[in-house]
Amino acid sequence: MKKTSLEDINRNIYDIKNKDEYEFKITKGLTKEIIEEISLKKHEPQWMKEFRQKALEVYNSLEMPTWGPDLSELNMEEIATYVKPKTKLNNSWEDVPEDIKNTFEKLGIPEAERSSLAGVGAQYDSEVVYHSMKQELIKQGVIYTDMESAIINYPELVKKHFMKCVPIYDHKFVALHGAVWSGGSFVYVPKGVKVDIPLQSYFRLNSPESGQFEHTLIIVDEGASLHFIEGCSAPKYNKVNLHAGCVELYVKENAYLRYSTIENWSKNMLNLNTKKAIVEKNAKMEWVSGSFGSKISMLYPMSILNGEGSKTEFTGISFAGKGQNLDNGFKVIHNAPNTSSVVNAKSISKNGGKCTYRSLTRINENAKNSKASVSCESLMLDDISISDTIPVNEIRTDEVEFSHEAKIGKISDKAIFYLMSRGLSEEDAKAMLVRGFAEPISRELPVEYAVEMNNLINMELEGTIG
Questions:
Q1: Which letter does DSSP use for residue 87 in this model?
Q2: What is the pLDDT of residues 251-260, one digit of tens each?
Q3: Separation CA 43–CA 49 (nearest Å)
Q4: In angstroms, how far is CA 452 from the centroid of its own chain?
Q5: What domain range includes position 306?
Q6: Which pTM value belongs to this model?
Q7: Residue 306: pLDDT over 60
Q8: Closest CA to 435 of 333, 348, 328
Q9: pLDDT digit string, tens, across residues 164-183
Q10: What CA–CA distance (Å, rounded) separates 133 from 437?
Q11: Number of structural domains the chain divides into
Q12: DSSP class of residue 464?
């Protein structure tokens, strides 16, 4: 029988499950006492304890978002917000417990560290279990550590920036994050330092009916540069898991930051992540994003161009299969003259999956002579998938250049017929077209991560209905 659609297949190494063993797992739910217990377990300073309680108050005062995917299946009474693994923070890979180490080795983390990374952090459930950085960066004054250590060792630097870029009032799940955050990465690149080899943090959630709430805080000082890579994955369970991390990026005058992400959460995950960058004079912020997995995703990275001549670029792709609703996009605010933004977003949907591109481009009155370009393309691989584009463009001055282009369509039957006439199978023809569609995103990633993204696309495409 002729193939009519493409099926999901097993997620291979990403669905590795270890036993749900831990040193401590907090009671499910969200109360003042639970928040106090998290602080107590972490031996936090008084300002952080007070911050968590304030965030909980804000969380309880805010309504659930109603404009995006349906979140009614999320019940915080069924989510454990803190799971401490049976290990401490290790600086040697050999000291990581065998089961955790084996998981990360199968995911390729140590190999990537040896071949192409200047530093690595690995988080398992709620805590960072491994961290290392090359000596030459340490000598240059670069700081790369876990957030808990940063609060103790660099208290003034952390307190000055922590949840100032992403305030707890932004939305309900930012407030949740502020109350229960755990783990994550802190990076500071001193003035003028160029970090030529990427740093990477990898976040792995293993425990069922739990959440991961890592906090990433990166400060790239004047004239400095950095490429930071974030990887995420989790095995599939029958009940909901929650990811509500937060990323705060500060790109100072004449600095450069590229933030690359491949998110490959399991398809029982609600991914409600928040990422934001503040970009100062003549600085540049680049985002590269691949969104796979997760049952529901609501993710809209944001650049705030506060300095004259500041720039941002966003290059992203989403891939939604059966039972997935990926509501992703990008936001940019032009707050100064001669700023520029370029957005190139793509999505692929199949087997009834839904992709939504939701965006905001705002050019304020004082952002004269600014330029903004938005391009979003959607590819549907069958007749039952859904793709929506919901851009909001607010242009508040006439002295700008702005363009917006959107394309939504099905995979080309003519192109498939042509490729099949040249000897390819229908499946290989479709895969070639999809990889070509995704190529502008994969070429922006380092080679190892472009390979991972292409492998994820291949995994999504394999299998047939007879």
A1: S
A2: 999 999 999 9
A3: 9
A4: 15
A5: 12-461
A6: 0.90
A7: yes
A8: 348
A9: 999 999 999 999 999 999 99
A10: 36
A11: 1
A12: B
